[in-house]
Amino acid sequence: MRCIIGAPKGTKDILPEVIYKWHFVEEIVRSLSLIFGFKEIRTPVFENTSLFKRSVGDETDVVQKEMYTFIDKGGRSVTLRPEGTAGVVRSFIENSLFNQVLPLKFFYINTFYRYENPQAGRYREFHQFGAEIFGSSSPQSDVEAILFAKSFFDKLGIKNLLLIINSIGCHSCKERYSKSLKDFFAPKEENLCYRCKQRIANNPFRVLDCKKQNCQEISKNAPSIVNFLCSECIVHFDLVRKLLDSFGIAYVVDPKAVRGLDYYTRTVFEFVSGELGSQNSVCGGGRYDNLVEQMGGPALPALGFAVGLERLFIVANQQHIDITKPQSCDIYIASATEDCRITAMEMSFLLRLNKNIICEYDISNKNLKSQIKYADKICAKFLLIIGEKEKKMNLGIVKNMETKETFKVKLLPREEFMDGIISVCC
Ligand code: HAM
User: What ligand 1 atom has the least distance to the C-alpha of 86?
Assistant: First the structure.
């Protein structure tokens, strides 16, 4: 049956029957973050539009085509966050977190919004687990971020992800490279798409990741960043690779990997999967050494990454990663009469609050037979029946729903009832 008003295009409900998978993944994020020293940060779901224009970049697809931007009732232009780094950088500066002992490491699990054409692995509302490190320029922190992401995939048992790395250089390398790209693309301008024609002057990097076939064909022979890296950037990238080698982390260097957001400098990386079709990136990240200063903060290096959780689940399902469904009901307390129902309610609260037992009782006036059927349907491990005759004898009947064995428990005194239940059910 269809609801009169459906969910917006590109969004998905996460229903109770699968939420345990999300909880499982979120728990891994939290436990790993704790031991890696990343602290959780929560930033607003919407920010001032200019934040994304300034950081992600005016010429990027995200800003040009994909932002959910609207004017609020106060006449301000606000945007639903299309990514997490900009908001975390804003918060880092606005709350003067740079005055704390550095480096600082943050993580987040949030929803993000991009007005894209929905397809498998690409949604208008999606979730990311992201991490950001502020205040370290060393190659060790690049590898710390990569290892953090990799440990997350390993903990989940995700296999066969390919790590792609590249260095896109510091500000001056990027400037030199940008000039060379301009010189390369300018004579070919008329064969580029309308957007790329404009990009040549403002941000020729973006021509490299244009999805139009003509532009991609032309970009194939574009100069490579490798020839524009300064000696410091070469040393930095060499050290990142050496560290990855010494940890036995397999990777591929792809000089064409420039990432789709403007703020990156030096190391950029992606984890891609062969099991995702065209949307093959499960995780993307890199350094953004100029962004904090560019956004009004001190000159501090930073870097991070984000994992797309919907894409992660697609890969996990294809790899048959087993996530155990937790027990949804330990005991269902069925009751024969109105009087017994009150006792059932009282017993449920006792067991829930004193013994942490997942307990259910009838809240919809079902007869005893229907209650027992319901207990079976919700896969209750045990059924406690409070019948009229048994109640008068101060007794309840407990049934193990799997073995069908039955036991008697005393209803009063309450302590004895709870101990009786624990001895039978736990
Ligand atoms: P991004 O590459 O734009 O980077 O996104 C990171 C990941 O989010 C992607 O690899 C993908 O798995 C997922 N993703 C992106 N768009 C969608 C979509 N429309 N539907 C489903 N999943 C999607 C960033 O967002 C950067 N902020 C990452 C970062 C953090 N860099 C430094 N720090």
Answer: 27
